[in-house]
Write a structure and sequence with these properties.
204 residues, mainly alpha, Rna Polymerase Sigma Factor, Chain: A, 2 domains
Length: 204
Amino acid sequence: MSGLAAVTELHPGVPLGATASSHDAALIERIAARDRDAMLVLFTAHNARVFRFILRMVGDRSLAEDLTSEVFLDVWRQAGQFEGRSTVSTWMLAMARYKALAARRRRTEDQVDEEVVEAIADECDDPEITAQKKDRSEILRRCLEQLSAQHREIVDLVYYHEKSVEEAAAILSIPQNTVKTRLFHARKRLSALAAEAGLDRSYL
């Protein structure tokens, strides 16, 4: 049984999201005390999604792998500075975004290769789920390519990473009202594009 599964079984009345968040916070406390096992558990739980988040921004797998390693190295070094004002995943994605933006500036490339992103499987999905998503993901990929960089970023955080408006605002360092405005326009545009492509709006 995984660490998260064990926590969920011990606390069946606690929502999964809340359980995951509290479990991550407990891991950070152990990491701050230099518990390598806790670091491995956190890395295993979040590595794939941090990697995909960075990859969407930089469009280069090798660079994304390097930046993901840097994020978790910073987590190891800075765990004692985590104050719990956001979830651990939000804290890590904020680190990831900062590193990805810095890397993009260094490379002077601002165009994300969505085809590379979609070619990499989500390690959290089993083969059956992957097969079910294939056709819809291809349509959404083409639609996402037509959004602005800001709108793609918002959609990525809210829909792919299930971040709240407050969490997205913290990651992007912008007001919550700005997040809401961007999300509204991004969703409206994406919905229109998806409808034109023949995708059921219920997926959005």
